[in-house]
């Protein structure tokens, strides 16, 4: 375990952020490397990939504020652990993929929000929900810190990647499972593959078919994309086995192939916990 970055280092970071500074402090890069070395999620990255990831995480910390609520103090290790997970899905996309938000907010525990939504027949409902993460269109990312801390463990879920996927999806409007695609990618082929897989998954959930993919993915196409993005980075061998076409499309979108670097995991170990 390395020494913490001195508080004045992050004070300098705050000033550089306000003034538009671009140089990432060497102590911050060093701390990011140390933190990355202990994260199972990042196993198998090449030296060049790790360098790119660490630099992007440093750029995120320069450009984005990380704020703790409910009297929670956010230290350097927390910032680095969050930034590295945020940087992983965008490692080959660059800072433009993160341009829609400026702040990440951390709660010391799952948090309560009051939401309004429409059901399948158009009736509007309002109620409270307990969440561990939330992405706002052109707004902040909000997380429960304990869940951020436990996310990079290759257990099939990752709240940071989930909310980052929503933000990528919202680069061209509200989250709908259809993010802006790169040049050369076929929008019609993307829509056809994702719509077909989503409808099939919803049928399986409706019929009580249990599998490793969280049933929450059936909520709407935006959640299906975000949950599959989690699986793509956390349990890529299962995602590639059961959703080969979606895996191929995610590889094109994220410009990564996690199955080539991560070890397979036991399917039983990542099965969602069913409510009793």
UniProtKB/TrEMBL annotation:
* Annotated Pfam families: Peptidase_M90
The Swiss-Prot or TrEMBL record annotates one GO molecular function as: aminopeptidase activity
Mind telling me which CDD domains this protein's record contains? Peptidase_M90_mtfA
Q: Which UniProt keywords apply?
A: Pyruvate, Transferase
* Signal sequence extent: none
Q: Which GO terms describe its cellular component?
A: cytosol
Q: Which PANTHER family match?
A: MTFA PEPTIDASE, PROTEIN MTFA
User: What is this protein's record name?
Assistant: Phosphoenolpyruvate--glucose-phosphotransferase regulator
């Amino acid at each position: 375990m390395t020494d913490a970055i001195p508080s004045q280092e992050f004070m300098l970071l705050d000033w550089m952020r306000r003034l538009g500074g671009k140089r990432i402090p060497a102590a911050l890069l060093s701390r990011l490397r140390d933190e990355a070395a202990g994260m199972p999620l990042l196993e198998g990255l090449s030296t060049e990939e790790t360098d790119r990831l660490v630099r992007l995480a440093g750029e995120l910390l320069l450009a984005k504020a990380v704020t703790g609520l409910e009297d929670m103090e956010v230290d350097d290790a927390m910032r680095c652990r969050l930034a590295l997970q945020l940087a992983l899905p965008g490692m080959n996309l660059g800072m433009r993929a993160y341009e829609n938000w400026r702040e990440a907010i951390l709660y010391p525990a799952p948090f309560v929000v009051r939401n309004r939504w429409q059901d399948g027949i158009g009736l509007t409902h309002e109620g409270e929900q307990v969440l561990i993460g939330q992405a706002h269109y052109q707004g902040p990312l909000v997380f429960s810190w304990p869940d951020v801390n436990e996310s990079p463990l290759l257990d099939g879920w990752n709240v940071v990647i989930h909310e980052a996927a929503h933000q990528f999806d919202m680069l061209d409007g509200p989250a709908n499972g259809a993010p802006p695609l790169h040049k050369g990618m076929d929008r019609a082929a993307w829509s056809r593959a994702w719509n077909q897989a989503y409808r099939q998954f919803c049928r399986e959930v409706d019929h009580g078919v249990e599998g490793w993919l969280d049933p929450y993915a059936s909520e709407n196409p935006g959640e299906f994309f975000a949950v599959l993005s989690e699986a793509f980075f956390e349990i890529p061998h299962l995602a590639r086995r059961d959703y080969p076409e979606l895996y191929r499309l995610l590889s094109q979108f994220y410009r990564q192939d996690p199955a080539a670097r991560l070890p397979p995991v036991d399917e039983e170990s990542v099965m969602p916990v069913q409510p009793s």
